[in-house]
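[job 4417] fold queue: 2 targets
>>> target A
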Amino acid sequence: MFIARQPIFNSQLEVYGYELLFRLERQSTQFGGISSQGATATVITGLYESGLENLVDDKYAFINFDEIFVHSDALELIEPNRLVVEMLENIKIDRLLLERLEEIKNMGYKIALDDFSRKYLEYPLTTLADIIKYDILATPLETIRTDVATALSQNKILLAEKVETEEEYIEAKKMGFRLFQGYFFSKPHIAGKSYNKTTSKSQYIRIISEVKKEDPSFERLTELIEHDVTLAYRVMRMACFRSGNSQVCSVKYALTYMGLKEIECWISIIMLHDLGKDKPGELKKISLIRSKFAESLAIHGNLKEYQHSASMMGLFSVLDAILDQSMEEALAGIALPSSITEALIDHKGILYPIYELILACEKGEWFAVEKISIDLNISNSELALSYRWAIQWANEVTSQVI
């Protein structure tokens, strides 16, 4: 089983929760030919096998339920403060369902209505719902102003799905939406260049350029890093994290221990973290997840010799959004292998299928996931394990970088 996740943000662009998307088998696109309640049961089991905290941190897990599985006791395996019960848009409503939802609410669970497109005052479940999710592609904001006002008057939390631009996010926020789901946060908003960002990028480029020389100097790298005491401290912390040894006594020792490829990776991680201080933390975490996920996909996809380049490609895949520049501008001045620039700028080349597969997994586009993973000869289990490990790794690294 493959479980993907999509972040849900509050109005401060902090992660409120993750909607969990899942595929059971290679052939499945939604429920794999079995009942939806069986699929949801598999997801809940998978959450325990994977570790709920690894998939959603300390946030809410949004999971789809139908009118059958919502009656199962398995729902109660997840604590109320970790689960939002999403009722599917085509759910069959009867007296038993209404009684069960009241029972769930009394236990402390939040109830969300997924892809809501009905008349608000006429739909029986709106009185029980805590969160109402509007797909703003299917129901544009202009068409739901009256229902939105009614819902807000009843203290409902409104969630805008399929938010793809900053303009849509701002408009939904003005209307009273408090939660947002989509890829608006990972796209550049090009509104001028920041001098501080450019300067920081230049400093990091000097270090990365030294690493990429045919004969890099550890002395020169040590000198460049020690010019910034905060950077020096963080490099030493990372060496401690990697080695499990708290006795790393110098920057030079840390660099020697990690090796050139590890140095390049960690410096790049720090660079993205620093350049993106005014960006949602989830954007930087996505870069880390993509980095480890891409590395693993290269290994399993018979591209082991490209694993380091794949890792860097995943890491830099959000640099345009972090710098609010085109990808071509964002990568300018960074000496990267052509396989990376071809994938991120030209959308072609040896690493592009891995980049495509990562994006398809994040969006739950299962037809594309199936096709690309077959082309790369990556099994469903390898895909699932690689993604879960990438999330866990990103969580660990985030705690070390900050």
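>>> target B
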Amino acid sequence: MSIVHKATLTPNKQEIFGAWLATQTWCEGDLTRTIGSYRFDDPAGRVGIECVLLEVGDSVVHLPVSYREAPLEGAGDFLMATTDHSALGKRYVYDACADPVAIRALLAAALTGATQEPMDVYDQGRLVERRDTAVTAAGTGSWEPDAVPHLDGVTIRSHGADPHLEAGGFVVVVKRVVDGAEADGAESIEVAWPGGAGSLVGVRHL
């Protein structure tokens, strides 16, 4: 279950993502709208993990993001912004490709065949809505959850439209610009959204 708080963010997500994407050389065009997102949970319940699909110019952009209550050590170059969350206070918004908690969640989903978490909306501690999502995601693997390795960190081997990350003996490939090509990997996360579908995260052994 992915808990979403009924709250306001200042700046809001659209503003954060639009400003960050404008600084990325691999991204062309302006952010026009959010298509939807999918989430996987941090088992410890501390880090929010969201993969957002955005319409940017003539492209669809797949943007994994993590939300933290405190700075992630050593990841200053991957901080998108800080935002004031009306329910949770100050939040640090990161490019999740540098966040080991987020990458382990994506790795685990790809290897175990997990599906995205249902999105439960809470207001002042009370469940008020189970939100339908326009985006669905599911891993292709059949591993047991206990077999997924612990990650001490993530090594970024390439960064851009298709980041290649080394984590726990695996290479994780993220498709950020959806161009019809599939993310390379023996296992993957298959994502569907209105008007499209594809493998947007790929996983293979080193």
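[job 4417] complete. Note on B: DSSP finds two helices and 16 strands in the chain.
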